[in-house]
């Protein structure tokens, strides 16, 4: 990376804007004091809601919920587009690091360090901490079951880094860092992991391109270093050292990929920990967990992990029915499986086939007692005056093939969009159905790749 040195000074001047010190309340301190832990049952990390004040990289508290929904729709469109394309198309903005590297003058674009808050993968994603390098430094990372490659913003940020909480990862400060050459097998695996071809730099380093939508992406050097979680250290972890990172990821440093691919964090740690992970996605006022390794199998109800030729890396399930206040929706059972269905940690609002959504909307509205209807809000069209906690909300159950069920609590059914309006937290789609994170909140969800099943258990976190 020596050819990049002329840019280092300019970049460091522009990018050392550390996040302002944040008051960690004693509540947050007590919630995170026991983590991370590596014990005989695996690796246990704390997971934070993207807007939790305890998150190491919380989204701005004044972020309008309509903005969250706009990003959510972009994420869904991106996932749907992935499943719709049979041949992989390169990202809309393939960034040539090679070109930037050859230039010795400080590029003008570096003087206007971004940040166009473009389409984002980060807005709905939960946050945890990952240690990298020797000595290890901790980074706030979003966790994503919808992508595979782990990457983080990486000094000297040849093209662009956004402002992140805490210092940037600096490969030169790590004694265990190595750039991965183009000839490595991991470089070939990038195509499957990112759905974009890899490239090769003039100095023969493998270049990855991870894209998440129209304007959200990370491009940089495929690298390896020791990843650590508390006392657990795992050498030779492959990840992306991001030199051009665009899209609003809050203040997080990067992304942890948990999808089904050899380069994902799950697969890289699995030889030591086992091929499964579980999580509990908390609300914005509590904390949850992400565990990799063994889990308590008795507490879950299971549904088979469905394989799809559309995209081998995503987690497909088969929705088999829904009921409201104990009554099945008035749709033909075949409607539930009329679209491919994935379960996703980063999509906020569950998307259902239009016919199922319409029946759900009608049934919920009819069972809401005297709640007054409110106008539609963004993509949510079944809204009521008041806050979810003050209303009489019917029980909603989502059933899956094999007998697994999510018996949704009020907080999984309605979402407060402002101080006086709450909406059904589902939306219709005609492309890809997605089990989103509002519906998963507070359940333990296990992704057992080894046994090809997904399990749900109530009461995983508060
Ligand atoms: C491992 O640590 C987790 C998280 O603290 C804890 O819940 C679990 O019971 C521990 N397991 C064992 C076997 O010690």
Automatic annotation (TrEMBL):
Gene3D superfamilies: Acid Proteases
Active site, per annotation: 144, 344
CDD domains in the cross-refs: cnd41_like
Top-level taxon: Eukaryota
One term of GO molecular function: aspartic-type endopeptidase activity
Residues of the signal peptide: 1-21
SUPFAM superfamilies: Acid proteases
Region spans: Disordered: 83-103
Domain Peptidase A1: 126-457
Any one GO BP annotation for this protein: proteolysis
UniProtKB keywords: Aspartyl protease, Hydrolase, Protease, Signal
PANTHER family documented for this protein: ASPARTYL PROTEASES, PEPTIDASE A1 DOMAIN-CONTAINING PROTEIN
Family under the similarity heading: Belongs to the peptidase A1 family.
Protein name: Peptidase A1 domain-containing protein
Taxonomic source organism: Digitaria exilis
């Amino acid at each position: 990376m020596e050819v990049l040195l002329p840019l280092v000074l300019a970049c460091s001047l522009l990018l050392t804007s550390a996040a302002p010190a944040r008051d960690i309340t004693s509540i947050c301190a007590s919630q995170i004091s026991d983590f991370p832990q590596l014990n005989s049952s695996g690796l246990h990390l704390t997971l934070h809601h993207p807007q939790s004040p305890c998150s190491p990289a919380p989204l701005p508290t004044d972020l309008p919920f309509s903005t969250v929904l706009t990003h959510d729709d972009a994420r869904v469109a991106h996932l749907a587009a992935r499943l719709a394309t049979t041949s992989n198309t390169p990202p809309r903005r393939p960034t040539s690091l090679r070109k930037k590297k050859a230039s010795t003058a400080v590029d003008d674009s570096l003087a206007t360090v971004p940040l166009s808050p473009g389409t984002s993968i980060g807005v709905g994603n939960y946050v945890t901490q990952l240690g990298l390098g020797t000595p290890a430094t901790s980074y706030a990372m979003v966790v994503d079951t919808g992508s595979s490659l782990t990457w983080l913003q990486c000094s000297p940020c040849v093209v662009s880094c956004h402002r992140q909480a805490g210092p940037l990862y600096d490969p030169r400060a790590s004694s265990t860092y190595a750039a991965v050459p183009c000839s490595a097998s991991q470089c070939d695996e990038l195509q499957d992991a990112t759905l974009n071809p890899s490239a090769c730099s003039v100095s023969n380093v493998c270049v990855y391109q991870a894209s998440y939508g129209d304007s959200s992406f990370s491009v940089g050097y495929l690298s390896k270093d020791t990843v650590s979680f508390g006392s657990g250290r795992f050498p030779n972890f492959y990840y992306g050292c991001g030199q051009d990172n665009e899209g609003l990821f809050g203040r997080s440093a990067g992304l942890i990929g948990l999808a089904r691919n050899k380069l994902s964090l799950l697969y890289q740690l699995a030889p030591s920990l086992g091929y499964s992970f579980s999580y509990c996605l908390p609300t914005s006022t509590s904390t949850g967990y992400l565990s990799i390794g063994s889990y308590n199998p008795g507490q879950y109800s299971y549904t088979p992990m469905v394989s799809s030729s559309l995209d081998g890396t995503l987690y497909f399930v088969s929705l088999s029915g829904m009921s409201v206040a104990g009554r099945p929706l008035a749709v033909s059972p075949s409607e539930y499986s009329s679209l491919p269905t994935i379960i996703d940690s980063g999509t906020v609002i569950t998307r259902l086939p239009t016919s199922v959504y319409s029946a759900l909307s009608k049934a919920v509205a009819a069972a809401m007692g005297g709640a007054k209807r409110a106008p539609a809000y963004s993509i949510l069209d079944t809204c009521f005056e008041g806050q979810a906690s003050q209303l009489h909300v019917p029980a909603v159950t989502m059933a899956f093939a094999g007998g697994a069920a999510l018996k949704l609590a009020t907080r999984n059914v309605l979402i407060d969009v402002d101080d006086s309006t709450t909406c059904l937290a589902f939306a219709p789609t005609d492309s890809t159905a997605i089990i989103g994170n509002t519906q998963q909140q507070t359940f333990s969800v296990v992704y057992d790749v080894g046994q090809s099943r997904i399990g749900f258990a109530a009461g995983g976190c508060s």
